[in-house]
Amino acid sequence: MNTRQQSKLIYSWYGKPLGSDRKLRTSHYKGILITSESSKTETCIQLGDFILVEGVNADQPYVAQLVDLYEDGAQHKHAVVQWFCRLEEIPQNQRKMLKRDISAQEVFFDQVLGYDTDIAAETIIKSIMVIPLHLGEELPVITLNKEQTFYVKQSWDGKCFKVLSPDTFSKLKEANKTRGVITNSSKASIPSDIFTPVKKKTESVVRSATKPKKIDMEIESKHSSSKSSLSKERHSQRMANNDIKTPTARKKLELNSPTRSKGRLLGYEVLGLLDDDCDATAPLEQSATKRKVKFTNDILGSPPKIPCSDDKSKSTTQSAEHHQSDIMRLSPYTKVNDFSDEDKNLQEKDDVPSLGGYQSSQSPVVTPRSRRRCVQKTSALIAEQISMLDQEDFLSDSDSSYSLSSEEKEDDDDDDVPCTPEKKTKSNRILSTPKSSRKSAVHTPAKTLRKTPLKGTPRTPRNATPEIPRRIQATQEPASVLEEARLRLHVSAIPESLPCREEEFQDIYNFVESKLIDGTGGCMYISGVPGTGKTATVHEVIRCLQQAAENDELPPFQFVEINGMKLTDPHQAYVQILEFLTGQKVTATHAAVLLAKLFSTPGPKRKTTVLIVDELDLLWTQKQNVMYNLFDWPTQRHSKLIILAIANTMDLPERIMMNRVASRLGLTRMSFQPYTYKQLQQIVSSRLKGVKAFEEDAVQLVSRKVAALSGDARRCLDICRRATEICEFARQKRAPEMVRMAHVTEAIDEMFSSPYVNAIRNASLHEQIFLKAILAEFRRAGVEEATVQQIYHHHVALCRMEGLQSPTVSETMAICSRLGACRLLLVEASSKYLHMRVRLNLSQDDVMYALREE
Amino acid sequence: MKPSAMSKRKLKESSAESAESISQLLVKTTMHLARNYFWVQKILRERFCHHFCAAGKLFGMEQQYRHLLELLRRTTVHGESNSALVIGPRGSGKTALLNHVLKDLREMTQVRENLLEVHLNGLLQTNDKVALKEITRQLQLENVVGDKVFGSFAENLAFLLEALRKGNRTSSCPILFVLDEFDLFVHHKNQSLLYNLFDISQSAQTPVTVIGLTCRQDILELLEKRVKSRFSHRQIYLMNSFDFKQYIKIFKNQLSLPAEFPDEPFAQKWNNNVQHLSEDKAVQDVLQKLFHHSKDLRSLHLLLMLAVSAVTVHHPLLTAADLQEASRQHSTDSKANIVHGLSVLEICLIIAMKHLNEVYDGEPFNFQMVYNEFQKFIQRKAHSMYNFEKPVVMKAFEHLLQLELVQPLERPSARAQREFLLLKLLLDSSQIMEALQLYPNCPTDVKQWAASSLSWL
């Protein structure tokens, strides 16, 4: 979604450089113009504006306040921002500290130090409103353009929430206020060519539409319920710019020309309106060759391209430190919105005179500028109207109509979008400011695009929470020493420390720590046979690092874990990583693209990511592109990605990876050796610390046995656990007993003894004879394979010797398939009947041993 | 025979008492008998058809029972995760053991409503995708709508793992996974289902216990090393480790009527009869033979089922003869049975093949060879009555092919001539001789020819 939008947006400076730093070769600007090619709209964002910044997640753009804009020596446009963070960006466990419900509209003044406040200007999406509120205050009821308005009550510094300092609060408030007031000064210096016909037109239309209202207040008041409601809680509620206006303006338009259906405003009609309203501009527009063409085009739905290449004409000196101060300037076309945002009570007085003055000064000009003047007049008029409405609101307390009407309007908006998209954008463009048009043109389609596929396809119920029902009765706590020991010996029990892996722990810790501090990426490959504590050690490292990060000793980082065995397909790795990082759910291919973009671009506000890839060998694909990507990302300059890859085989990189993959994995490797018996002993006894359940020798026996076989700590713990059970069985009701050698031996036998001998000894007589017959046939033929027919003959002969009734062929076949099912024999498919070939699945000696005993 | 005669006499005595009600009594008694017959059939057949929970008897597996019950009890009561395999040959009572344990477990007060069960079968859940949907469905997680589970394989897996990860030992309801035909799950891609289940059982998540039932003794060798490491290596072996005396006891037990049988005198009589049967030499021989062949209870049930089917209203009690007949049916050779129904020509062809097998030591043959062998017999020995046209012989030969008494070595193709298709005989010479003995009206010269291929010389 992001990429798509971005491709159609052109970012250009607004105004001349305010000042430049020779040394750094940077030049600062006071505003940036964002031109959307697709919708032919232009938005100007100035310093001090609140903006949305493209984030990791397209659904959740970052909120920030624009502090500085500059262009560096390499012609890259940069922006310095003050971040606000959403609730989603705060770690889950720390959200609890808030102790209140947070609406989606609330953001926090971000004082976390780790974030990069210097972002690429291209990542700015649009401007929005952020309104400071006192902690106790209720969020105003939001009716329109929810996504445009945010509220800030508290600040967040990575550890705790604080109430906004009065200074910050006032600054933020100021930032909202100042916008309207300062317009005048900025206006005057704006060169006319920045204005696209669209805007001029737009505003003239608005003006034309609003004009009658001034005259006829009564009519307006009937329709003003929404407006009045919007401004009702005026001290706290500042509705965001455009959408408020859109409906009102539309309504006004309707009032003006009742016969016309809403939104069906064609070019000539608009022209007509314009003619009515500002005679001076209209003829000019009609006569103006190029402009006029563009203009009509635009109205009819094929907007012109907006020239915005050389508009660095404006310069405003601006210091980054005082970003929240009152130097903010607003372009005329944003001003319209800003009025609505303002605290009307306070601003009323300021607004009207300033506008008035402006009007008078500008009106005589009948050059292209007149259009602008026209625009500004409109905005002034609107502002006046709004202020008047406010006054009305004071008098009338039509609470009840509030929600209804606003909903109605929302409905209107919504309805328009799907039905007549073109007209909608048109009307939007006409009736609202460019900002809103950008929003409507870019954001609305984006929204619909985003939502439809999710809703359309039958997938898991969207709000399904993965959860296992809770148990009804409480768990019993261990009652005896043995039960306590068993609980501690369970593999899942997490010990306070990992004994015997101190070195490995330190190595991994140092590796990750150094990368974290440097803010770079890197890979580490960890190998070792199962049950040697690889994953446990890595988790321990992460736990310690998180602890350190919490204590501010390390920069914060994100921790993502994927497991090859827990993926249905190697490509699902992308999906899981992306979901961990951003919460987005997309397809594997799309996720790969997004991740590649994420890790290759210098993302603002991005923490280092520590990624654990467990069971790496299962991510192998024919082309190895999953592995390639995983190990390629950390090598990117801005990736900030640390990968800890875990697998069993030491030579995995050489064995299954292509050279280019292995090379990217690098040579940072670590191998976990199987535990020695001493280590195993230590592991068991460290878990049993304080519980006297095992004899020392018993533990040693288990450790030695396991170390000799595999060195798998899991096995060791399992045997010990089983031994406690055997001990419990054996002791019956006598006094508590320790686990002794005998119990341990029994447990070991149970787990490691070969089942075959026992199975043969418990087989039926004819099954045993059949096995003997097999041995006889093998000895006769000298080949370890025989057909059932051959064995059958031997079987019959053996039966005669034993004086038993010889079985029929069917019975022999049944015996054979029974033994085959137990896998004492390996048999072919039974369709071959007598010619079915049979082999032993264990050595002849074992069979002989098992048969001789009886 | 005896008991039935007795009952008849009793019937006679009762009828003698009052001449008027003879017919009434007769009707009553027959109805009574019919009802008894119905109950006997119902109870015993149900028992033999493996309604184990109803029968509620386990033989020779007390230790395993205790082990498994204790394991599951700890899972439910303490929230301890575990994994275990129940291994034993087919018919050794693995499912019976588990059902029994579960039944007893559910009756415990601490356990009731405190255990979620998921039953999977390797024959039904043939891949992880299906298995996963089934698990989700049985757990009734929130992505189950009605009886359907929506979402892709990856989503389902992620959802389930997330659900299990969220739980913890003390608060989540323990889950019991029963994997029947466990060995088939081993063949799923990457064994990821087993890996995940075992991994959960070895980590601090929702308590789960994974019980696998399998008949393969080499099951541990099939597990991938990572999966194997996560498996707790608890193996519960069921071995049918009882001797013949216990077998007789089981026989008695299986055949006795329960105390709650509606007609108590009849049940008494029936049980006495069973006691007698178990001491009967003929019956013991029958059982001994079966015991030598297979120790599993399923084959005993099969035998008893055949015997019990012989019980009718007029033959109310089981006899040794019934069991012998059942045993005979039980052990007959299936292929030899087919030979009984063949025509003389077909028998001749089979004999010809037998001779070819002897001459060429089991090498494959084709129709032409068989036909030649047959022709030799006709020319030297037989009369014209067996002299058939070659197509007729071919037809007979194809019939044998269809009966799968002979089997082609390779798939018959269109190009190869059918006469020269290489074949193998699926009968042993002993089977053929045995079948000939029982064949009705077999011509003597054919019998002689069968005895020796050289007899015509």
TrEMBL record, chain B:
<dbReference type="GO" id="GO:0040038">
    <property type="term" value="P:polar body extrusion after meiotic divisions"/>
</dbReference>
<dbReference type="GO" id="GO:0005664">
    <property type="term" value="C:nuclear origin of replication recognition complex"/>
</dbReference>
<keyword id="KW-0235">DNA replication</keyword>
<dbReference type="InterPro" id="IPR041664">
    <property type="entry name" value="AAA_16"/>
</dbReference>
<dbReference type="GO" id="GO:0005524">
    <property type="term" value="F:ATP binding"/>
</dbReference>
<dbReference type="GO" id="GO:0051258">
    <property type="term" value="P:protein polymerization"/>
</dbReference>
<dbReference type="Pfam" id="PF14629">
    <property type="entry name" value="ORC4_C"/>
</dbReference>
<keyword id="KW-0547">Nucleotide-binding</keyword>
<keyword id="KW-0067">ATP-binding</keyword>
<dbReference type="Pfam" id="PF13191">
    <property type="entry name" value="AAA_16"/>
</dbReference>
<dbReference type="GO" id="GO:0005829">
    <property type="term" value="C:cytosol"/>
</dbReference>
<dbReference type="GO" id="GO:0000781">
    <property type="term" value="C:chromosome, telomeric region"/>
</dbReference>
<keyword id="KW-0238">DNA-binding</keyword>
<comment type="function">
    <text>Component of the origin recognition complex (ORC) that binds origins of replication.</text>
</comment>
<protein>
    <recommendedName>
        <fullName>Origin recognition complex subunit 4</fullName>
    </recommendedName>
</protein>
<dbReference type="GO" id="GO:0006270">
    <property type="term" value="P:DNA replication initiation"/>
</dbReference>
<comment type="similarity">
    <text>Belongs to the ORC4 family.</text>
</comment>
<dbReference type="InterPro" id="IPR016527">
    <property type="entry name" value="ORC4"/>
</dbReference>
<dbReference type="InterPro" id="IPR032705">
    <property type="entry name" value="ORC4_C"/>
</dbReference>
<dbReference type="GO" id="GO:0005654">
    <property type="term" value="C:nucleoplasm"/>
</dbReference>
<feature type="domain" description="Origin recognition complex subunit 4 C-terminal">
    <location>
        <begin position="249"/>
        <end position="436"/>
    </location>
</feature>
<feature type="domain" description="Orc1-like AAA ATPase">
    <location>
        <begin position="57"/>
        <end position="211"/>
    </location>
</feature>
<dbReference type="GO" id="GO:0005730">
    <property type="term" value="C:nucleolus"/>
</dbReference>
<dbReference type="InterPro" id="IPR027417">
    <property type="entry name" value="P-loop_NTPase"/>
</dbReference>
<dbReference type="GO" id="GO:0003688">
    <property type="term" value="F:DNA replication origin binding"/>
</dbReference>
<keyword id="KW-0539">Nucleus</keyword>
